[in-house]
Each structure stands twice: as C-alpha cells, then as structure tokens.
Q: What sequence folds into this?
C-alpha cells in the first residue's frame, strides 16, 4: 500500500515512512492511494472475534510492511486489560432498538483519543526501525486537554521516543491539568504556557519550523515528530471501532448481515468521523454520517452550503475538544470525493490565505449525499445530558451530548430511524462541572471533589484513572511564556 500527499499524488511512500514523517513535505496529509475493500463475508467472520483481532484484520491491508504477528503484538499491548477497563475495549451500549452508543472512553485517559494513541506509539517505533532511523523521535504536542494526556500515556517509556507536551495554563480543566502534571514515565515532559490554546499551538508550530533548533536537536540525536491527528497512524486505528460496532450489533441481533446503519459523531478536527467514512468505503454498510458540532459550527455550514469559512467568532464551549475552526482532516475527505490533488491544493491555499473556500456543486452534492451536519449550543448540550439521563438512566459527557442533539434534529427532520451508532468520546467524569450543573446542581464542587459529588448523585463510580489522581505526586510545575518555549524544550531534553 502506497501513501500519497493530499496535495500531490506523485509523492508516494510506504506506510512506515508516512507514519514516521507525519505530515507530507508539501504540507498535505499522507493518505492511502486507494481504500482496500474487505471481503464479502468479513463482517460475519469478525462477529465472534475480540476487539484486538478485529483491529489486526482491519489494519493489515493498510500496512503491508507489517506482519500479522507484529500487529497482533501491538493490538494486545494497546488494548489489553492493563490499559482498558473492559475486555470489550469499545463496548456498544444499547439505549433503544434504533439507538446505540459506542463508548470510546474505557482507556487510560478516559477519552476516545486513547483508541488511537495507544496504538500509534507501536506503529511509530516499528516504523522508525523499518526506515532505519537512528535518531530518537521527539514528539511535540500542543493540547487543549485530551490529546496531551492521551499522547503521554501512549508514549510513556516507548523506546526511541521522547514526548513533550505544552498546555495552556488557562485553557484546560482542573482534572485535565492534574492528569498531565502527575504523568509518570522516564521519557516524558510537561510544561504549561501562559495564555490560551492558540498561544500554545502557535508556539509549538514555531518550534517545528525553527531551523536552528532543529539543527541543535539533530546534534543531540533527536528529530521532531507529531502525534497530532494528521498522522495516518492515528486515523487508521479509528476505523477499527466502526467495524467493531457493526459486528457487535450483528452479534447481538440488532441488525442482519447487509443491514445499513447511520453513525453520529461529535466532531472537531474531523479525524473521528473521517475514520467512519473510511469504514464505509472498505465495506461497512453505513448509510449516512451525521456530523455534530457545538457553537463552532463551521462544518455544519460547510456540509449545507459547500462554503468553508473560518472567519467567524470563536466560542469557548463546554465541549472544549470540539472548539476548532480549522478541521485539518477534512482535507482527506476532499481528496476522496474529488480524486483531484490539484483542486485540494488550491482550496487549502485559499483557506490559509483568506480563511475561506468554496467547493463546486458536484463536490457539494457528493458531500450531502453522505453527510448531514447539525450543531447545538451549550444550553442545548446541558438539556440533552439531562434528557438522556432521565429518559435512559444513562450519563453522557458534553461532547457526546452534542451528538445526541444532532441525532434528535436529524430524526425530527427526516423521520429516519435507521439503527444509529452514536459515538461517545469522553467519560462524563472528565467534565464533572458541566455534567453536574446539567443535572441541576447549582454549585458544583471544584477539582477532584466534583468526582465524588457526581458519583454520589448518580450512583456511578468514577473511572479508576481519574479517581486515582488523588494520591499522585505532581511532577511538573514549570510554566513559561510562549517566547521561551525553545529553552523549555532544550531543558526537558537535557
Ligand atoms: C478530540 C475529541 C473530539 C473531536 O474529535 P475529532 O477527531 O477531532 O473530530 C470529540 N470529543 C472528545 C472528547 C475529544 O477528545
């Protein structure tokens, strides 16, 4: 399998190089040259298999340099019982005959990033060996919360890697900050940056393009790499759980072989829902993909009008992992729909110059045939948390609530009750404050006390990785100005 840049299909490389390098040299995203279809009976065969076996089966055709034996090792290490609190790994919780919730937060950091960030380090360190890279990969991450912790847990003590995470001092929840500053492992570094997520992100981008720093690091035996969702090694493991959810519905008799389902995904950078689209292309019978956004509804507008316009107010919402105005992975969908790298390159150029582009009618039509876009604000998000809790005795986090709102709007509009998989991306205990107030608590407690408060109110226990934060020692206290991030990198690598 060859991988090509979304902006230039003549640059083709093997999977190992695509994963090691992250971004293409022309700024595009590395994308499989074609999508290998699963054999006809595959879904029925996979029905009785474990999540780990399903992962090997789905990923193998995309990774022909990797043996089944290698992939099995990675899948067992990534999704084993030390990492996930249920043998199902990504269980499907059925709310009613046509509404099923795919829980992607049973991993070590209680958010869906674990599904990919537990696998990526294995793929990356094996890729570095395959391309005979001698230097240590220094993974730089700017995070608004979930990615940083997910990457730290995934890469901790992985040979051939160092991981440095920068988070905005004023931009993460208390629980998220505690998760990061107590991180264990001998190859990890965590540093706060004064300011908001944009400051941290801009700072990290500047580190990546700092030639002088790059040369100094090379002298020390390091090169920069990324664990961002633009890396193919993060998208691929996400295709697996769509296949897995379909197999679970088959196994449990909610659908018959060949039946169509819809999927509904709370979306930010478009990585998760893109994996759903790829699952459809390789053979999962998915009829429609519902793209759910919060008040940062740039994708809702794009799907409805064909105009992508990031020139709009940015909102800080209670679903912060979806507070994004540039959804990087959309570029991969555009290539798939057009098969025209030059057209994609043109749009991306307009996006960076003017913050806006418009696709032609043919592309908009293709998009609308498959995707529907909906959005909701924080009030509706809270109302949905309360509604789902009271109607189904099921507790969801604010990101998942945005998806449930999109599904409700879609059904209202279309009366389409095709069995639907709603993707649940975080444990409600990661966002105690918003969840407690959605359930009517007027003054939610602060920090870890809120975990107990939510437990008491609902009778559910907080996931062990969050409850366990209480006894953990704080290892990282540094907070720098964004101008001083170069020094922070050098200090952490010393
Ligand atoms: C990252 C994240 C999302 C958004 O996923 P994308 O792949 O960026 O679209 C949604 N919910 C949670 C909890 C997340 O951490």
A:
């Amino acid at each position: 399998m060859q991988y090509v840049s979304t902006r230039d299909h003549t640059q083709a490389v093997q999977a190992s190089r695509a994963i090691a390098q992250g971004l293409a040299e022309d700024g595009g995203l590395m994308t499989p040259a074609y999508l290998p279809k699963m054999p006809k009976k595959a879904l029925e065969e996979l029905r009785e298999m474990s999540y780990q076996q399903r992962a090997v089966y789905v990923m193998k055709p995309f990774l022909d340099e990797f043996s089944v034996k290698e992939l099995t090792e990675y899948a067992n290490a990534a999704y084993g019982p030390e990492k996930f609190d249920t043998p199902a790994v990504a269980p499907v919780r059925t709310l009613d005959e046509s509404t099923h919730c795919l829980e992607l937060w049973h991993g070590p950091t209680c958010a869906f990033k674990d599904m990919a960030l537990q696998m990526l380090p294995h793929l990356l360190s094996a890729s570095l060996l395959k391309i005979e890279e001698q230097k240590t990969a220094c993974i730089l991450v700017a995070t608004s919360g979930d990615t940083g912790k997910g990457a730290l847990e995934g890469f901790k003590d992985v040979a051939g890697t160092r991981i440095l995470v920068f988070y905005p001092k004023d931009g993460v929840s208390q629980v998220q900050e505690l998760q990061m500053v107590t991180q264990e492992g001998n190859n990890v570094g965590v540093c706060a940056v004064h300011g908001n997520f944009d400051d941290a992100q801009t700072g990290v981008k500047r580190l990546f393009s700092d030639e002088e720093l790059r040369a100094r690091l090379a002298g020390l035996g390091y090169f920069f790499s990324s664990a961002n969702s633009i890396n193919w090694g993060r998208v691929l493991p996400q295709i697996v759980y769509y296949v897995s959810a379909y197999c679970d519905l088959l196994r449990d008799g909610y659908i018959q072989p060949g039946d169509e389902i819809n999927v509904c995904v709370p979306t930010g950078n478009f990585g998760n829902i893109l994996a759903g689209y790829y699952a459809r292309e390789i053979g999962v019978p998915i009829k429609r993909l519902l793209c759910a956004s919060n008040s940062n509804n740039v994708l809702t507008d794009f799907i409805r009008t064909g105009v992508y316009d990031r020139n709009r107010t940015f909102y800080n919402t209670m679903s912060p992992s979806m507070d994004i105005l540039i959804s990087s992975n959309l570029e991969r969908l555009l290539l798939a729909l057009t098969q025209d790298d030059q057209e994609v390159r043109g749009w991306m150029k307009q996006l960076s110059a003017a913050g806006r582009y418009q696709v032609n009618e043919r592309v908009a039509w293709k998009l609308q045939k498959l995707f529907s876009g909906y959005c909701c604000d924080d009030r509706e998000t809270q109302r949905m948390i309360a509604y789902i809790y009271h109607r189904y005795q099921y507790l969801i986090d604010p990101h998942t609530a945005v998806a449930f709102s999109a599904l409700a709007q879609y059904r209202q509009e279309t009366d389409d009750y095709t069995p639907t998989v709603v993707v649940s991306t975080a444990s409600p205990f990661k966002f105690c404050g918003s969840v407690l107030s959605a359930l009517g608590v007027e003054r939610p407690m602060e920090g870890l006390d809120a975990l107990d408060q939510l437990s008491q109110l609902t009778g559910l226990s907080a996931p062990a990785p969050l409850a366990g934060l209480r006894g953990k020692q704080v290892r990282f206290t540094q907070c720098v100005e964004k101008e001083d991030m170069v020094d922070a990198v050098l200090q952490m690598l010393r």
Summary: The longest strand covers residues 161-168. The chain has a mean pLDDT of 94.
